[in-house]
Design goal:
Elements (H helix, E strand, L loop, with lengths): L3 E5 L6 H14 L4 E6 L9 E2 L8 E2 L1 E3 L5 H6 L8 E5 L6 H14 L3 E5 L11 H9 L2 E4 L13 E6 L2 E3 L18 E6 L1 H5 L4
Parallel strand pairs: 1-7, 1-8, 2-5, 2-6, 6-7
Antiparallel strand pairs: 3-4, 9-10, 9-11
Helix pairs in contact: 3-4
Length: about 200
């Protein structure tokens, strides 16, 4: 029986690397997969999933908030699809997560989603992550280590002009950024250092 999986972690936890290794395993066995990625992620080339941890990359289809994922997959179901892999799953809408449950339940195709759980905004989850935590059959944490100590990283801290940002200055949870230090960037932290990063 197919299942909906949500594998979450902080930024720089090698989520995309895990996805790429999973894709390689399926394809090495001669199985057909489809990789998807949100068009909101503008950090990499549109048609590829890449990882900071690997040189290997994989082609993908990009979706936006208006894409009906069930229809997209159902229209491609002229050949057997063994698995669907989704990167940056936090950018899914709640309705798209429900569409993924329909792909699993009615098309019998496993779907593995990789993404962030927590946004940088204090106490707020991404819409897609919140829906996946509710609907997924299996939830797994991809662990990483705090930037400031050796504790497990569970939070994504936004640093802008040298100061931590806990509230949205854009009106939503979506801010595209990277972990390379700049005027506006993100670091993975434990809860203690999320609230007091420079103590």
């Amino acid at each position: 029986m197919a299942k909906l999986y949500f594998k979450y972690g902080t930024m720089d936890a090698s989520k995309s690397a895990d996805l790429l290794m999973t894709a390689h395993k399926y394809e090495n066995q001669g199985k057909n997969i489809i990789c998807l990625r949100s068009s909101l992620d503008t950090r990499t080339k549109k048609d590829f999933i890449e990882s900071r941890a690997l040189t290997y990359k994989h082609s993908c289809f990009c979706f936006d908030k208006d894409t009906n994922l069930f229809d997209f997959i159902n229209n491609k179901n002229n050949k057997k699809i063994n698995c669907i892999l989704i990167d940056e799953a936090q950018f899914l809408t709640k309705e798209q997560v429900i569409q993924l449950t329909e792909i699993v339940d009615f098309l019998n195709i496993p779907v593995i989603c990789y993404g962030l759980k927590n946004s940088y905004i204090k106490g707020q989850l991404f819409e897609g992550s919140n829906a996946l935590l509710y609907f997924a059959d299996s939830i797994q944490e991809i662990k990483s280590v705090c930037h400031f100590c050796d504790n497990k990283a569970t939070m994504n801290l936004r640093i802008k002009n040298g100061s931590p940002i806990f509230d949205s200055d854009t009106g939503g949870t979506v801010v595209i950024g990277d972990t390379n230090e700049s005027e506006d960037y993100f670091i993975s932290t434990c809860r203690k250092h999320y609230f007091k990063p420079f103590d």
